[in-house]
Design goal:
The complex is a heterodimer. Chain A is mainly α. Chain A has helices at 15-42, 57-68, 70-81, 88-112, 121-124, 131-155, 158-161, 164-175, 177-200, 218-246, 253-288, 305-323, 325-328, 331-358, 374-397, 404-407; strands at residues 212-213, 216-217. Chain A is built from 16 helices and 2 strands. In chain A, strands 1-2 form a two-stranded antiparallel sheet. Chain A is globular and about 70 Å long. The chains are: A mainly alpha, B alpha+beta. The complex binds iron/sulfur cluster (2 copies).
Chain lengths: 412, 258
């Protein structure tokens, strides 16, 4: 019944099947919205945060999705600025993933502040010395850029495109895309960095504090590096999942391999830098504050295994898989590597957010454990349902994958 | 901002707490709660969500009985003097370092409740309002008119009873004076401590009691290695207590919080 809205020449499931699928996700989303309203009504006492854990699951989720969303700007940069032509097949989808990641981050942030109605103070009374101010401005601006990148795709819907205004608009947007990609790259570099900077500047929190270059602590650069190396792996991962769900090849395998290879080499670089950073932290920064590396880890929840999981299992392992041609060309290995790398960056953000606060700075204090409340879980996990809804709608109604028709010729 | 503090001012307020005199009675905490219009919830058992601008930590020397020794460390906001951690991170300038007095204050109506400052402060001096304040029937009549109550969703902390400074200045002005006398402006905790363990005053006035006490041989500050330069000093003749003031390599972290 929605045939006229579906791009020409591609196969989509029946409207009935599609809407049942959507109903499932909308139900989950509905539950999350109800929970969000509960939180707005009753306040942050609905979370398990407290005066030791001022940040928790939401900030972890925010930083996680923003890092994973970096695939959008970085693929844009590779496609439009460095002109890696293989990525043309992927760039629309990368933008959609970025859009989902950033819009959900903004939504979660609104929930996370104690006075959501004062959210605009961030723009009105900015403290230029605060990394968080830089984050607020850059994320808002970059989200605008992502919207500008997403809109032309929406305008290309078969029905909408028939409208002459939409047609002209879409054409003009396309002309300017390289400029937006460049602006997006600039903005993204800064806010990925300032998110890392947010922790590195906490000079009174030995777990997070790092020295740096000029006003930027090393975490500023580490966060950029980890985002550009893992963001693309997440783009590849979601594309593979979508191909699995739709049982179709949507982008040429080569495009995925190229992006995965670039990500793999970047991940190698990141892992080396991260090891160097950890070494300097353990041998200089901590001892200067009377602390040792062992004192930064504790028990199971905060154990030293986190460091090995983050750098080894989710850093070195996927990096090696991705730079090895034979493994990269194998779908199973590729998915495994991308999943590990994506998980690793979320783990890294979790460690910086929660462990920083858990580590007792007073010699006479102890470790406390934080575990999110169900309200925090439901609202954080809603990102997945929200993503599924946007991706499903976009896949069904928009010409997201330019090579889909060629890769799936009609039967007979 | 908090790095270029040294303006031509004759005032910089600070506190000295003599731990050898502190009995851990908690009168300072109660005085603070009452002076600053805190409310108390029916269930305050979750200590990580319970507001105490002046919190008393119980520490021990970590030795087994009969060699166990116990001490109490009252902890207000340190009003950090160097690159004040909370002030520099706040995205909306809702917390402020006053270069004329050295007092770090909080603007409740400006705070958006992001809690970045809570993460920045290593002293756990900052508290978020997880609930809206509720006072028992009729108790609002006992509230201190000089102190605004706080709403849900904002952060608060010890202000060195900043409102008392305003009052003392008003009084001096009426009497035709510009400068305050030592002891004219003191915090509620210093005033109420039954053993007089807390001394408060102008550290820049060489004749003030605090200025003299901070020069005592047993004086130290909490977590000095971090470089925050607290304006709260502690005194103790016990070396194990002084050692607990900061982290040190090669020493086991033994003591337990109360
Ligand atoms: S003790 Fe904490 S709240 Fe007080 S000035 Fe220092 S960083 Fe800020
Ligand atoms: S919680 Fe309030 S005072 Fe603290 S950093 Fe955020 S806006 Fe500033």
């Amino acid at each position: 019944m929605d045939r006229a809205w579906i791009p020409e020449g591609v196969q989509r499931c029946s409207a009935g099947a599609f809407y049942s699928w959507m109903a499932l996700w909308l139900f989950v989303l509905g539950a999350a919205v109800t929970t969000a309203l509960l939180i707005l009504w009753k306040g942050l006492n609905q979370t398990n945060m407290n005066d030791y854990f001022g940040f928790g699951a939401w900030i972890t989720a925010d930083l996680g999705v923003i890092a994973l969303g970096a695939g959008a700007f970085f693929s844009g940069f590779l496609t439009y600025v460095l002109r890696v032509k293989e990525l043309k097949a992927l760039i629309n989808f990368a933008v959609i993933i970025g859009f989902i990641c950033y819009s959900s981050a903004l939504l979660i942030l609104t929930l996370d502040i104690g006075q959501p109605l004062r959210g605009w103070f961030g723009y009105w009374f900015p403290n230029i010395h605060s990394m968080l101010t830089e984050v607020i401005f850059c994320i808002t601006l970059y989200f605008t850029v992502l919207t500008i990148e997403y809109v032309p795709l929406i305008l290309e819907n078969r029905k909408i495109y028939a409208n002459p205004v939409a047609h002209t608009l879409s054409h003009n947007f396309h002309e300017a895309m390289a400029i937006f990609a460049a602006i997006g790259t600039f903005l993204s570099f800064f806010h990925q960095g300032s998110l890392g900077g947010m922790y590195g500047v906490l000079y009174a929190r030995p777990f997070a504090f790092r020295e740096g270059f000029f006003v930027w602590p090393w975490t500023f650069f580490l966060f950029i590096f980890s985002a550009i190396s893992t963001g693309p792996t997440f783009t590849v991962l979601v594309t593979m999942i979508l191909q699995k769900v739709t049982k179709k090849r949507l982008v040429p395998r080569e495009s995925l391999s190229v992006l995965a290879k670039i990500a793999g080499w970047l991940l190698c670089g990141y892992v080396i830098v991260k090891i160097a950073d950890t070494y300097y932290w353990a041998t200089h920064i901590l001892p200067a504050r009377g602390l040792t590396l062992a004192e930064q880890y504790h028990g199971y929840q905060y154990g030293l295994w986190l460091l090995f999981a983050e750098i080894g299992l989710c850093g070195i392992v996927p990096a090696l898989i991705l730079i090895t041609r034979r493994l990269r060309e194998n779908d199973k290995w590729l998915v495994l590597a991308c999943a590990l790398a994506s998980f690793g960056v979320v783990l890294n953000r979790f460690i910086f957010t929660v462990q920083t606060l858990a580590m007792p700075v007073y010699p006479f204090d102890k470790w406390y454990i934080y575990f999110p409340s169900w309200q925090e879980w439901v609202t954080s996990m809603a990102v997945i349902a929200y993503g599924a809804v946007i991706i499903s709608l976009s896949y069904r109604y928009l010409p997201v994958f330019p090579y889909e028709r060629d890769l799936n010729p009609p039967a007979r | 901002m908090s790095e270029h503090h040294e303006v031509a001012s004759k005032e910089k307020y600070g506190m000295v707490i003599d731990l050898d005199k502190c009995t851990g009675c908690g009168a300072c905490t109660v005085a603070c709660l009452s002076e600053n219009n805190h409310y108390v919830r029916e269930d305050e058992s979750d200590k990580l969500r319970s507001v105490a601008w002046m919190k008393v930590y119980k520490v021990t020397n970590g030795e087994p009985f009969p060699n166990t020794k116990v001490a109490f460390i009252p902890r207000p906001c340190m009003h950090c003097d160097h690159h004040t951690p909370c002030v520099s991170v706040c995205p909306v300038m809702a917390t402020d370092y006053n270069p004329l007095t050295g007092i770090v204050s909080q603007i409740y109506t400006r705070c958006i409740g992001c809690r970045y400052c809570v993460g920045a402060c290593p002293y756990h001096a900052r508290y978020f309002n997880w609930w809206d304040p509720v006072w028992p029937e009729g108790m609002h009549k006992l509230l201190n008119p000089d102190m605004s109550p706080r709403m849900r969703g904002v952060v608060e902390k010890c202000s060195f009873c900043n409102h008392r400074l305003q009052k003392a200045k008003d009084k001096a002005y009426v009497e035709g004076r510009r400068d305050l006398r030592d002891g004219e402006y003191v915090t509620a905790c210093a005033e109420d401590c039954p053993t007089k363990a807390i001394t408060f005053g102008n550290m820049k006035d060489p004749e003030s009691a605090v200025a003299k006490l901070i020069k005592s041989p047993g004086a130290f500050r909490l977590l000095e290695k971090l470089g925050t330069q607290p304006k709260v000093y502690y005194l103790s003749n016990e070396s194990w207590i002084r050692a607990l003031g900061d982290n040190a390599l090669g020493r086991k972290r033994t003591a337990r919080p109360a």
